[in-house]
Structures are given as C-alpha cells and as structure tokens.
Specification:
The protein has about 280 residues and is an alpha+beta fold. Helix content is about 45%, strand content about 5%.
Length: about 280
C-alpha cells in the first residue's frame, strides 16, 4: 500500500466508526474472521436471516418482550438500514476527501465480520482506495452547485440541495449511479424478500446517504461542501430521487417513507427518526 493510500484510509477512518475500514488485496484468500459481504445477498447462505433474527431479538429486548413480538419486516428494515449505512459511509468519506470510486466495490469485493450494537468491521479492496488516492478528484463541472447560504443555516443537513442547479453529469454522477445500482441495489433486493417494501428500502438508502453526510460535516466541517456534493449526486439519481424531499427553505432532508423502527416498541408506540415522513413539522 502506498503512503497516499494509507493516509487516505486513515483520514476517512478518523471521521467515525461507520467510516472506519481496513483494506485487503482484491481477490486474495479470506482469512478468519473475514467473510465476503455478498453472503448477505445470497438466500442460501442464511447470513441475512441470521442477522435479521439478531436485530429482532435486540429490538424486542429493548422493550422487554420476546423476539416474536417484533414484526419480522421491522427487524429486516432496521438491519438493512445498518448494512447500507456501513457500505455507503466510507465511500462518501472517500468522496469528501477526494472523489467517489469510479468503480465502486461490489458486495463480493467487500469483506466484513459481523457484529451488532454498532458498526461492524469492514474491509475495502486496497486497489479501490489506491485509485481514489492517486487519480485525483473529479472535475468541478461534474459536481452539483449548491447554495452556501442555505448550507450555513443548516450545517447538519445535505444543505443547499433544495436550491441546487444541476442533476449531476459525468464521472461523479456515473460513480454515484454505479454505487446505487451495484451494492446498494443488491442489499435492497436481498431484504425485499422479508416482505419489506422497496419504497422503504430505497428510503433507507437515502437516509443512509444523508446520515453519512451529516456525520462527515460534524466530524470535519471543512469537508462539508464536497461531502454534500457527493451526497447530492446520489440523492438525485433516479433510485433515490423520489425517496426523499429537501425543504427549499433550508435544505433539510426528509425521507418519504418510514424505516418502521417505531413499531418495535410495545403497542408500536416508539419514537420515530428525525428525518421520518411521520415527523410533524
């Protein structure tokens, strides 16, 4: 690994636990405890079923109830949101510092070892990080122009997106599309088998993008503009365009679906997330 690659990995990992990652040589043999993340998308592996069951038990325990008291689709949606956030966050971190990988890693490229209660360990192909580190940033004309005045009023949001002037073209938009149509769509397809609406699942993806962006802005305010630009390239892709809204007054993000976590509480009376469609404003 080159010094540039090592430095970039350390910079992204410093943004927080969901951004932290290790690296491995593409195509190298697996070593315990690492596994391919693509296991999650293969029904026959049972990995996703096991993870959803674990999330279900954890959610139920929070309300002092048996696992069966929590709807399976609720646990599946919550598990999906965590998986997507973990995949998207380090890649948005790379984008904030340099650019999105032009060839994002597939689930088969990514490696993980499972854990609940926080961010699971994740490893990216060293070659992916090296390409981002050495090939430079995408030209600014591939970006979306945002309104810095809006961003200043609401520094935790995607910001400015309500007044952006473009839809994103060129390499940046292509990289964003490849990420959404690759590993993110694979996770959506896998979890949809648990009777979770795809509208909810793509809403989870949009929420994960916005959440990662807010995490970057909080950890490193100087990276706010490139982080938001990368997020906008994703949020304006057809997969996510109808999954959220951005308030034109302040750029605040709001999804158009609910991740369902409120239903895990007794009598389905739990709190909803700050970006939920059910939040009254």
């Amino acid at each position: 690994m080159t010094d540039l690659t090592t430095a970039l990995q350390e910079q992204v990992s410093a943004l927080g636990p969901f951004f932290t990652f290790e690296t491995h040589t593409a195509g190298s043999e697996l070593g315990a405890p690492w596994r391919k993340l693509s296991e999650v998308a293969r029904v026959e592996s049972g990995v996703l079923e096991e993870r959803v069951a674990s999330v279900r038990a954890t959610l139920a325990a929070g309300g002092g109830r048996p696992a069966e008291a929590v709807e399976l689709r609720v646990a599946a949606s919550v598990a999906h949101l965590g998986l997507v956030a973990r995949v998207v966050s380090p890649l948005l971190g790379l984008a904030a510092l340099r650019r999105l990988p032009l060839r994002p890693p597939t689930l088969d490229d990514l490696r993980w070892h499972s854990g609940l209660g926080g961010a699971f360990a994740l490893s990216l192909p060293r070659e992916t990080v090296a390409a981002v580190a050495t090939e430079g940033a995408v030209a600014t004309d591939d970006a979306i122009v945002t309104d810095d005045a809006v961003a200043a009023r609401d520094p935790g949001s995607v910001a400015g997106a309500g007044t952006g002037t473009g839809t994103g073209t060129g390499a940046g938009a292509g990289a964003a599309g490849a990420l959404l149509e690759g590993p993110v769509r694979d996770l959506v397809d896998a979890v949809a088998a648990f009777s979770v609406s795809r509208r909810i699942l793509w809403g989870n993806a949009a929420s994960a993008v916005n959440g990662a962006t807010a995490g970057i802005v909080s950890a490193a305010p100087a990276l706010a503009r490139p982080a938001r630009t990368a997020a906008l390239l994703m949020l304006r892709h057809p997969r996510l365009r109808d999954a959220h809204t951005l308030d034109p007054r302040n750029g605040r993000f709001r999804r158009r679906s609910c991740c369902l976590i409120y239903r895990a509480a007794p009598d389905a009376a739990g709190a909803v997330c700050g970006d939920c469609v059910l939040v009254r404003r």
